[in-house]
Design brief:
Length: about 400
Amino acid sequence: MTAPPIYLDYAATTPVRPEVVAAMEPYWAEHFGNSGSAHRWGRKAGAAIEESRSRIAEALGARRREIVFVRGGTESDNLAILGRAELSRAQGTAPRVAVPATEHKAVLEAAAAVQSMGGTTTILPVDSEGRIEMAALDSALEAGLCCLSCMWVNNETGVMQPIPEIVERAHAAGITVHTDAVQAVGKIRVRVDEVPVDLLSLSGHKIYGPKSVGVLFVREGTEVHARLHGGGQESGLRPGTLDTVGVVGLAEAVCLAVEEQEAYQSRVTALRDRLVGGLRERLNGEVRVHGEHAPRAGHVVNVGLPCGASEMLMISLDLEGLAVSGGSACTSGSTAGSHVLRAMFGEDGPSAGVRFSFGRTTTEEEIDRAIAITARVVERLRPSGATA
């Protein structure tokens, strides 16, 4: 009997969990109204959206009016960074933004787009563990910024940036801070009443919610210019008819993920350590964990293997029934290697790694099978004398 395939790419996306499906189900057809309509169908949809807004706000320690619904993490990142840049330009100042080199492409490319607006983008270096270089951060803050954006948990390595310290330094300089918390919410404690970030992005499909729905938290008093124009939905920041089904599902997913995050993180960290230990034993210690000595979230680990992380390795693992990735799903198909690893190690360092990421249903038996499959494929593909 063929063993079932193993999915260890939960950092790319997750299945919608049954409780979320159940919460969404009435809004597909029964309560289908446009939340902007004044009749009973519209009022029913509008009430569901506002209840969802309140639930997410409570889970994050925010005010209800600070939750803005968008179509996902990428849109949220773009609205935060480019919305701040547009504000700066409207005030007659050339926009300046700064982001670490290990950010998600949604942040890096939004930051690069600021230059086409006549602004300046500063890419902040990180050390070999993936942590932001504080001296470079301080220099950028002293020069003045309309926005500093820094990811809370890296999507390729799981490395956590010291967001409380970064926010403290930025606010002392009068700088607005945005954090991409897509890989943080529901994995580690994220409370905006404890860590006073000004803008925060999250996405539903990373936490067992629906795809194409997310949030931009906008702290009261923080100004952001809209990037889209049309109706007045979401206080004019994100016009367009709201996806009631998606918003309801997102709220359920956020609440469940936050409620379970402590037990979840403990369990996936144990699975991560089991995987790394098993691979090192099978491959005679020739496994490098990228960012191993930095604080990390436990649900994702990026490793260097003695055959590299070539496209052939990914294909071979998939053919053996193991789904992993070479980095961010948003850059699949790229042959340039990981920009995160290049930022950590330089152009002459490793640019390829294998990302294993774990979910709420991942089992020890799956981890043991993944160890065996990976070791077998590496031994078959490794060139003579190759090391991690």
